[in-house]
Amino acid sequence: MSGETDAKHKTIFLVEDNRADVRLIEEALKNSSVPHQVMSVRDGVNAIAFLRQEGEFVNAPRPDLILLDLNLPKKDGREVLAEIKADPQLKSIPVVVLTTSRNDEDIAHSYALHVNCYITKSRNLSQLFQIVKGIEEFWLSTVTLPSNQ
Known about the structure:
This protein is of the alpha/beta class. The chain is 41% helix and 17% strand. Strands 2-1-3-4-5 form a five-stranded parallel β-sheet, sandwiched between helices. Helix 2 crosses helix 6 (125-142) and helix 3 (44-51) packs parallel to helix 4 (77-86). The longest helix is centred in the last third of the chain and has 18 residues, at 125-142. This is Response regulator receiver protein.
């Protein structure tokens, strides 16, 4: 095991329009044992621009993990997910849908679009922190992620 790989900062790309949820997720990740940075945008149009390094996001890092809300302004999270998974340059980035929707149709549609996992956000603060810690432990500590290309 190389120390260089272990010490590499992970980039978590959070696509979330609710400022309070962004703050809570960042707070939940603050004491992470995995070195990381959280980058965030508040709508689907900027999410795609960030991922494709367009416009103001020309120097954006390639994320190691995407946390995607479904209900977004400008371009909805379902459309963002479809574009990510249809793009040969982006489709290998793991996408975790993290949303308040418990709708069976949203869940089925997300998996049909090849989401890596679907998690329903809790409105209970301690449960939300547990969920985010679980995401961090699994996706950033346990799973072997593809190298950034």
